[in-house]
Amino acid sequence: MSNRSMRKREAILQAATELFLTREYSGTSMEDIAVAAAVSKQTVYKHFSDKLTLFREVALGSVEHVSRDFQSQVASVAEAPDVPAALRDLARSYVNAVMNPMLLRRRQLVLREAGRFPDLARTYYDSGPRRTISVLSTAFARLAHRGELAIDDPRTAATQFAFLVVGEPLDTAMFRGAGRRRRRSELDALAEAGVEVFLAAYGRKRETKRPRGPGNANR
User: How distant is the alpha carbon of residue 131 from its chain centre?
Assistant: First the structure.
């Protein structure tokens, strides 16, 4: 695909995202999208065979990419020598990826149209949130096996980690709108606070040596 063709495709996706969000699926036509993207209707059909195909690409287009990147980082955490530091790095990457404005808008779109396209909502969930919990579970099981975390139920721990890190900012964006972008420093602070709570519950408990003294010398 040429650079010009790629630019047109991206313009179509951006225009479609805006229109699907503001007018919903039923109120948006391929002609509307062509006008908003400043391309011909034939160009829209050249890239996307029909409105449903375009809608699916808008809704799911970035989920797989973000999920692949996240899986790679989680795999490295499972073998990290400094687990607390690795978890903090992971949490910061995680919350900033989830709070990407375009990804937030696409999530909103899926939620808005879930009643009309339940299969699409399931695909989004399986490719994004569910897969995230799965790969975190695998990593936490490995860290527990290494003795780095005190975890009996890796899946529960993975779910709690995810909600500690992204729960508040994601809920705020979904219910109050994704328009106001949170500062990275603010998201990083939320992520690190979530990791501290997680480690307080699941961090390796190190034995504390009691000082020897007259009261316990013979104990």
Answer: 10
**Residue 177 corresponds to which tokens in the numbers above?**
């709108």
CATH number among 3.90.76.10, 3.30.160.20, 1.10.357.10, 3.90.1150.10, domain 62-202: 1.10.357.10
Nearest to 202 by CA among 156, 134, 135: 156
pLDDT at 210 over 50: no
pTM above 0.70, yes or no: yes
Domain extents in the chain: 3-59, 62-202
pLDDT in the model for residue 206: 46
Neighbours of 79 (CB within 10 A): 13
pLDDT at residue 88 in the model: 97
pLDDT tens digit sequence for 60-94: 887 777 777 788 889 899 999 999 999 999 999 99
- CA distances, 43 to each of 24, 37, 104, 153, 187 (Å): 22, 10, 27, 51, 39
Q: 3-23 and 51-60 helices cross at what angle (nearest 10)? A: 90
Q: Which CATH number fits domain 3-59: 2.130.10.10, 1.10.150.20, 3.40.50.720, 1.10.10.60?
A: 1.10.10.60
